[in-house]
Amino acid sequence: MPTLRQLEYLVTLADTGSFAQAARLANVSQPALSQQVKALEDRLGVKLLDRSTTGAILTPIGRSVVAKARKVLGEVHDIEALAKSAATGLTGTLRLGTTPTLGPYLLSPIIAELHRVAPGLRLYVREGIPDAQALALSRGDLDVLLGPLPIAGDDLEIEPLFREPLHLVSAVDGELATGRVVEADALAGQTLLSLDTRHHLHRQTSEIAAHYRMSLSPDYEGTSLDSLHQMVASGLGLTVLPALYLASDVGGSAGLAILDVVDWKAHRSIALAWRRGSSTEAGLRVVADHVRESGRRTLTSSRS
Question: For a designed S-S bond to 266, which of 87, 95, 166, 177 qualifies (C-beta 3.0 to 4.6 A apart)?
């Protein structure tokens, strides 16, 4: 019978496509990982991978086995969580993944509130790229994921929480920062800065650039919302920033002007996701309720 370790190695290899990178993530030597995957193939009597000097590609049966392995590993993590959880699941350590464009600007009040209502709960927060975190959730490395939609995964339960406005900002002394309403035509040709392509916010920024005939800069991709903030404040161009970032103490709008564009309706939808059938689902829905109310409360107060 395949071992859990063999399944974990196979899934990690499927995610990376590289024996060297998979070995680093699994914290084992590359020969040890390769031997275990080969032993799994021998035990199953099928070829799971096509190996080459550049990496490994799953065979058709390999893709099917990996899909099943993800579910098995997720169930194992759920069993471990069940042994540690109370009736609501709000005890023990909850591994929460989030995107760096959201977590730092939303989680602080939520963590404090959850600690008051569930003092036995400990949150281990891991920031990362959305698609990579969805994979980590599917294979059981995370218990829950907080981030913008879409969140990919056929095995995931998605709970929409609230809509967060996205604002177009410029330097306070920018040519459009007049305090008057900005007509859509005035945005044509303006330079728009964005995060790198791995972030959902890049896709939305690209769509906004196309809609308003703005020029999306390929030379000044930000590595964080703070870097975008600093570049725009220095006059390099415009950018799109989430409302929670602009309202937060760790982000803010210093040096920026929020532009009032005619018929501007840009937003992103925030959701919580967990593995379907998770033994801690009741507790995760409690967490979802707290995140939903905290997000809405913060957004309401920022508009007043």
Answer: 166
Instruction: Please give the structure tokens belonging to residue 226.
Output: 């703070």
Residue 20 CA to chain centroid, in angstroms?
25
Q: Which residues of the chain have pLDDT under 70?
A: 80-90, 304
Length of the chain: 304
Q: How far apart are CA 138 and CA 46, in angstroms?
A: 24
The answer regarding whether domain 164-267 maps to CATH 1.10.260.40 reads no
Could you check whether 79-162+269-303 and 164-267 share the same CATH topology? yes
pTM of the model: 0.72
CA 15/CA 180 separation, integer angstroms: 49
- pLDDT for residue 144: 94
Q: Classify 163 as helix, strand or coil.
A: strand
3-state secondary structure 218-262: CCCCECCHHHHHHHHHCCCCEEEEEHHHHHCCCCCCCCEEECCEC
- Asked if residues 247 and 169 have their Cβ atoms less than 8 Å apart, the reply is no
Q: Which among 273, 269, 271, 244 is positioned nearest to 101, based on CA atoms?
A: 244
> How is residue 98 annotated by DSSP?
E
Residues 6 or more apart in contact with residue 4 via CB below 8 angstroms: 72, 73, 76
Strand partners of residue 214: none
Whose CA is closest to 138, among 163, 157, 162, 111?
Answer: 157
